[in-house]
Amino acid sequence: MGIAIWALPDEDATHILQWNEEHLELVTIGEKAAVYVDFVSGAAAHRRQFGGGRGQPVAKAIGIKGDYIPRVLDATAGLGGDAFVLASLGCTMTLIERTPVAYLLLSDGLRRAQLDTHTAEIVARMTLHFGDGREWLTERASGSGPLAQQEFDVVYLDPMFPEPGKRAKSKKSMAAFQTLIGGDEDADALLAPARLIAKKRIIVKRPRHAPLMAGARPDFVFDGESTRFDGYLPISKTSK
């Protein structure tokens, strides 16, 4: 994955991945705050127990209703927060993450969650792959690639949106993570193949006042407090 292994940090290093007791964490050199994925306790546990269940905007956006629980492809998994929420509501989740740091942190979080009785059943519905979402979506749209034999009701897209002016609003640790990962400047390329794959809808999570993905007007929108969920209907290959 292109990540160097050091016995001691390189003198020019700004961030390191390191083991802290039982978890893998991302640390900014010179800072105490660290980023790691925890689905068992903390904010994830509180949201699982008291977060509103199907009433959450992300659940409404992907269309959970009655007996209908969609199969979801999350092509920009990041640290897996929304994917875990959807899995906790019963969705079968396929996750793709292309950034080595995020992939390793998320893999470690899933590993530890598998060992806990409160979360094991949830993460059993989550399958994580390392790869570029654009490439995997494009291949799947042409009937090839690693996902060729899988069907998805919903494609979920939440690319990292570059907002330099809003960094201060994030926790110091998460701001460091966002700085290291950077924005997904090529995210617009995700939408077209996603619309050829999803059977029901495509959901794009954006900051509330961010521009539309690929300039495409959504078919419907679900608003959250600081984000919005733009919904697009599929486009059949024969209607292209």
TrEMBL record:
Similarity remark: Belongs to the methyltransferase superfamily. RsmJ family.
Name of the gene this protein is made from: rsmJ
Keyword Thylakoid in annotation: no
Record-level GO BP terms: methylation
Function of the molecule: Specifically methylates the guanosine in position 1516 of 16S rRNA.
Compartment(s) of residence: Cytoplasm
Keywords: Cytoplasm, Methyltransferase, rRNA processing, S-adenosyl-L-methionine, Transferase
This enzyme's EC code(s): 2.1.1.242
Residues given in the record as S-adenosyl-L-methionine binding sites: E97, R98, D158
CDD domains assigned to the protein according to its UniProt record, in alphabetical order: AdoMet_MTases (cd02440)
Pfam families xref list: SAM_MT
GO molecular function list: methyltransferase activity
Main location: cytoplasm
Entry protein name: Ribosomal RNA small subunit methyltransferase J
Family matches, as Gene3D superfamilies: Vaccinia Virus protein VP39
Family matches, as InterPro entries: 16SrRNA_methylTrfase_J (IPR007536), SAM-dependent_MTases_sf (IPR029063)
Catalytic activity annotation: guanosine(1516) in 16S rRNA + S-adenosyl-L-methionine = N(2)-methylguanosine(1516) in 16S rRNA + S-adenosyl-L-homocysteine + H(+)
SUPFAM superfamilies for the chain: S-adenosyl-L-methionine-dependent methyltransferases (SSF53335)
